[in-house]
Write a structure and sequence with these properties.
Mean pLDDT: 94
CATH class: Alpha Beta
Radius of gyration: 19 Å
CATH topology: TIM Barrel
Low-confidence stretches: none
Largest sheet: 12 strands, mixed
CATH architecture: Alpha-Beta Barrel
Shape: globular
Number of domains: 1
Strand order of the largest sheet: 7-8-9-6-5-4-3-2-1-10-11-12
Number of helices: 10
Helix content: 25-40%
Length: about 350
């Protein structure tokens, strides 16, 4: 049952200088991963954080409880691959017990999901996104540089079986690599009931090999689906703060989401902030500055001091990511180190 909305004092809200109110926190629980997607991590010799430098579940819970009076209502757990963090369902249970948090999601590559889906659901998780960039097993291995395709499909099926609804599948679209996957995913959405979310390739790869020419744009994806399956129409009652614009096929069977981070930036409706696995607060995925929350949590800072640090971080948020300008600077941290 959805918990009632609560009123937050304007003076306490996390509002940046552009008037955006922030209610949505992404928590990276680890930088480790069991695959090596080229747009996220190096193929080999990845230098992971020392485990002692990762936030504990108790520290994550404390941070959330400090942020709740500032208006936090939604959480998404990310990585790395969050399911490699031992006993993740315990963290889910801690967060689900906070009355003001009415929405907890998880983004996973799905390889370990079949074994954990039931525990996660029982702990209070209700929304899940599975990253799967190709339905062709050969292409899957080319992208991930690891095996595991069948495990991902098993994870999706297990998530549906235990009650996650909808299960969303995130597919990064890369020109010269995934064009042939678009129609496959369209049919997959229609046949399985999962929602496919196509994501434009973003400059967060560890090898700094991103080029605009490699971006497969949103309008091209929609045009291909319309030409080879049938036209799509916008879904009603869309969340204005959600990163995805949602469509459904004209006959009502199959839902498609488009995250057009490059061609149609949604920065001005952004309500998200994030904390990395090593406790650095970031007000944007592409931020060049961080606030050391872990140092505050472990150094005896008061809740008021930490709350003020959160406010100051949000207040300093830039207008947008600037990818489409000459001013853009790619963050030093790749995706796996920031948190997806």
């Amino acid at each position: 049952m959805r918990r009632p909305e609560r009123q937050i004092d304007m003076a306490e809200q996390l509002i940046d200088r552009f008037g955006r109110v922030h209610t949505n926190l992404r928590i990276s629980v680890t930088d480790r991963c069991n695959i090596r997607c080229f747009y996220c991590m190096p193929a080999e010799n990845v230098q992971f954080m020392d485990r002692k430098d990762l936030l504990t579940f108790e520290e994550m819970e404390r941070f959330v409880r400090i942020a709740v009076p500032l208006g936090l209502t939604k959480i998404r757990l990310t990585g790395g691959e969050p399911l490699v963090r031992h006993d993740l369902h315990i963290l889910v249970r801690k967060l689900a017990a906070i009355p003001e948090i009415h929405d907890i999601g998880l983004t996973t590559n799905g390889i370990l999901l079949a074994d954990q889906a039931e525990d996660l659901y029982d702990a209070g998780l209700r929304r899940i996104n599975v990253s799967l960039d190709a339905l062709d097993p050969v292409k899957f291995k080319e992208i991930t540089r690891r095996d595991g395709y069948e495990k991902v499909l098993e994870g999706i099926q297990a998530a549906q079986r235990v009650g996650f609804d909808p299960v969303k599948v995130n597919a990064v679209s890369v020109r010269g690599m995934t064009e042939d996957e678009i129609v496959r995913f369209g049919h997959f959405a229609r046949e399985t009931g999962v929602e496919i979310r196509f994501i434009e390739f973003m400059p967060l790869d560890a090898d700094n090999a991103w080029e605009r020419e490699k971006v497969l744009f949103a309008h091209e994806i929609l045009e291909k689906l319309a030409a080879e399956i049938m036209p799509l129409v916008p879904c009603p009652n869309q969340n204005p703060h959600a990163p995805a614009t949602e469509f459904q096929f004209a006959d009502g069977v199959g839902k498609i989401g488009i995250i057009a981070s490059i061609s149609q930036p949604f920065c001005m409706s952004c309500d998200r902030f994030r904390i990395t696995a090593d406790g650095k607060l970031r007000n944007c995925l592409f931020s060049l500055e961080e606030t050391d929350v872990k140092g505050m949590l472990r150094g005896g800072a008061t809740e008021a001091e930490i709350a003020q640090a959160i406010r100051e971080s949000i207040a300093s948020k830039k207008e947008g990511h600037e990818i489409n300008t000459a001013r853009f600077i790619q963050p030093d941290r790749p995706m796996y180190s920031i948190g997806g």
